[in-house]
Description:
The complex is a heterodimer.
Chain A: E1 5-14, E2 21-31, E3 36-41, H1 47-54, E4 62-67, E5 70-71, H2 77-83, E6 84-87, H3 101-111, H4 117-127, H5 144-156, E7 162-166, H6 174-191, E8 194-198, H7 202-208, E9 211-216, E10 219-225, H8 228-231, H9 237-250
Parallel strand pairs in A: 3-8, 3-9, 6-7, 7-8
Antiparallel strand pairs in A: 1-2, 1-4, 4-5, 9-10
Chain B: E1 6-14, E2 23-30, E3 34-38, H1 45-52, E4 60-62, E5 65-68, E6 71-72, H2 78-84, E7 89-92, H3 96-99, H4 106-117, H5 122-135, H6 141-145, H7 154-166, E8 172-176, H8 184-201, E9 204-209, H9 212-218, E10 221-226, E11 229-235, H10 245-253
Parallel strand pairs in B: 3-9, 3-10, 7-8, 8-9
Antiparallel strand pairs in B: 1-2, 1-4, 1-5, 5-6, 10-11
Helix pairs in contact in B: 4-5, 4-7, 5-7, 7-8
Amino acid sequence: xxxxxxxxxxxxxxxxxxxxxxxxxxxxxxxxxxxxxxxxxxxxxxxxxxxxxxxxxxxxxxxxxxxxxxxxxxxxxxxxxxxxxxxxxxxxxxxxxxxxxxxxxxxxxxxxxxxxxxxxxxxxxxxxxxxxxxxxxxxxxxxxxxxxxxxxxxxxxxxxxxxxxxxxxxxxxxxxxxxxxxxxxxxxxxxxxxxxxxxxxxxxxxxxxxxxxxxxxxxxxxxxxxxxxxxxxxxxxxxxxxxxxxxxxxxxx
Amino acid sequence: xxxxxxxxxxxxxxxxxxxxxxxxxxxxxxxxxxxxxxxxxxxxxxxxxxxxxxxxxxxxxxxxxxxxxxxxxxxxxxxxxxxxxxxxxxxxxxxxxxxxxxxxxxxxxxxxxxxxxxxxxxxxxxxxxxxxxxxxxxxxxxxxxxxxxxxxxxxxxxxxxxxxxxxxxxxxxxxxxxxxxxxxxxxxxxxxxxxxxxxxxxxxxxxxxxxxxxxxxxxxxxxxxxxxxxxxxxxxxxxxxxxxxxxxxxxxxxxxxxxxxxxxxxxxxxxxxxxxxxx
Lengths: 253, 279
């Protein structure tokens, strides 16, 4: 199954009273089923907060988030976990150091009372290209790229349709980043996943995404097709600056 | 060319308790130029930088030569090293959030460099620090001087680090991933400031990075390290003509704007790369 995502007038403030800080004033965008949608912007622009709102990790937002036309607030937790999963930035911080890969992968299966646990774990591991013997390893016995594969396997084990990727490769070397990006691309081809991907690297956006939104201080300045990066089609000054800096950095200028 | 500022031959470094060397037989020289050291995490590039400043107390460092101008870095006592470290050779670290003292004013930390190394009054050090903050293009340096690290942005923090390191007018600056923690837009500004200062003052710069785009644009020469060895040395502008399969693999693994969306090339790590010596 593939799902669409729509956010309408999503807004959130942190803090109370006069000190309240409006992090997202009003964010709206929609993602088609099977699309890879990028969120870019500088640190502090609210990219990750959008993902945390969609996944309900942060739940005191206002507005609407619709998944296949159904409000994410109306989807019970157990069902929500089977629809959407999140992959975090730093695989050194997002895996429990005292839990083996088997523990990490079997916990969701136990919670969701799914059977065929061994088969499901084997499938998730082979999906991310890790040998089955890795089930008994602990995070410190894995390299950065292997850890991120485990984090992706954890997200896949409940067979979701929507993956929220929060800078999935920025903590990794280019060589390892290539492996993880190829993996994400292949999984999308095979399973028809919808991706929403936060990144600060426009080269990754260009490689992975169909469309992307440029965020500045919590607002979406512009939603652009992937071709806008190399074609200089951005109109908002900040998007132009961001794209210009990325091109210059890559040595295109 | 003049006599190189830094001359390192056959450097070996082993961390305390480790069974193998983290750096195995690295040799290079540095003149008044910008030298990039690239490699993946764990390749030993930062270890080389730290060893030059003798910042690895628990490691065993050996080399045929480790000469900085007329000084043999290996034979200095720690007391003599204090006169070199931060004064004639200094280091810019990766993340200003962790490398600035959170409970002291930014300006005092910059001025400390000057107070520590030169005989001067507090007022003089303060004036020097403010002038230097201006030189790294911080608007309103008087105000920033009085601020604490949490009150300034990452890009500004990294400029403060650069100011701090350049204030003593060193001959060599080792920049260890100076911009990895910054956004792309800010990254270029910081690099340009560093670049101009280094060129104007004729400083030798060692830029340690995992980012091939960065060394291509901001260095003259590049050493490529793999598993503690230098596998290839190139002029930065010839990076695309690299011969070694490891370097070529790294270049191919990088997604590029406007590139094909075919799966990225994945490094096929060969065991012989571990042993062969740089040509």
